[in-house]
Specification:
Blueprint: H1 8-17, H2 25-35, H3 37-41, H4 60-100, H5 117-130, H6 135-144, H7 150-153, H8 159-167, H9 171-182, H10 186-204, H11 232-242, H12 246-263, H13 279-283
């Protein structure tokens, strides 16, 4: 039998029943109405004991601060991954179109044998149909009969689609891009792109990062121990490996995430996101 809905007053009573300190009921109700009890309950996990009550001293305000921290962390990471996505789109479309032509992506022979070309074209057609009000899409439909050069159609590709595109390229092309663009091997690029796709989707859909276990483990990342390989830190290191601007990473992203950790140092424990004590040293490019 499904649980029945509860009022905000009942939710506050339930928090108190489990041992949560709620000093300002009005503030607590405002947060519950804006965030929802269910979403916020995930941030209580680090305070919950085996009998499902909370550790002594668990304060609602501190739990909400964890939620705020997570929200700001997602925004910060999403902005970095967004830059990586734009870079990846530019590199893939430039390389592939210069080797195979503007519409070479329409030819199955220009991908590896495992490539599901019918599925690939179907996804592209769906993207065009759902974005047919965009000016550049409408322009290519009206002027070129719905034909798009790769560097144009790639603007509709998600990060996951870009990762898929790379994974389905001919092996020689994968090697050339892995070596010349990312300075590593094909398996590493595939793994790191998969991790970045996963992290990007978590951030885009407001999924919890703090005290979360990740479903993917990036391959061959240095300075990530076994206890952290399924934590946020490992995925951030995958982003680091692919990120193209070392100066921007070191001088903008690193100070920003450090400032965020400092702002919430009274409630955030870095072990819950897998960050080691020397994270600033190992994350610098």
């Amino acid at each position: 039998m499904l649980k029945q809905p509860t009022t905000y007053s009942q939710q506050i009573a339930k928090l108190r029943e489990h041992g949560c300190i709620v000093v300002d009921e009005a503030f607590c109700e405002e947060v519950l109405s804006r965030v929802s009890y269910y979403r916020l309950s995930a941030y209580f996990l680090t305070f919950r004991m085996n009998d499902k009550t909370y550790l002594p001293g668990t304060d609602f305000n501190n739990v909400y601060k964890l939620y705020e921290f997570d929200q700001k962390l997602r925004r910060l990471l999403f902005s970095v991954i967004d830059e990586l996505e734009v870079y990846l789109r530019a590199q893939l479309s430039y390389y592939h179109s210069h080797i195979y032509g503007a519409d070479g992506y329409m030819n199955a022979a220009n991908f590896n044998p495992r490539h599901d070309h019918l599925g690939f074209i179907s996804r592209i057609n769906d993207m065009v149909k759902s974005n047919d009000k965009l000016l550049f899409v409408k322009h290519h439909i009206n002027k070129y009969g719905g034909q798009f050069p790769l560097w144009v159609i790639a603007e509709l590709f998600t990060f996951g689609m870009l990762s898929y595109f790379y994974s389905d390229m001919i092996t020689a092309d994968q090697k050339a891009l892995a070596r010349n663009v990312f300075g590593t091997s094909v398996p590493n690029v595939k793994s790191w792109l998969y991790c970045c796709t996963n992290l990007r989707n978590l951030c885009a859909h407001s999924r919890r990062l703090y005290n979360s276990v990740f479903s993917v483990i990036p391959a061959n990342i240095q300075n990530v121990d076994k206890t952290a390989e399924r934590k946020l830190f490992a995925s951030v290191m995958a982003v680091r490996e692919l990120y193209h601007e070392a100066e921007k990473w070191n001088n903008e992203f690193m100070p920003a995430i450090s400032a965020l950790f400092d702002e919430y140092s009274d409630v955030v424990l870095l072990k819950f996101i897998g960050f080691p004590a020397n994270w600033e040293d190992v994350m610098r490019k």
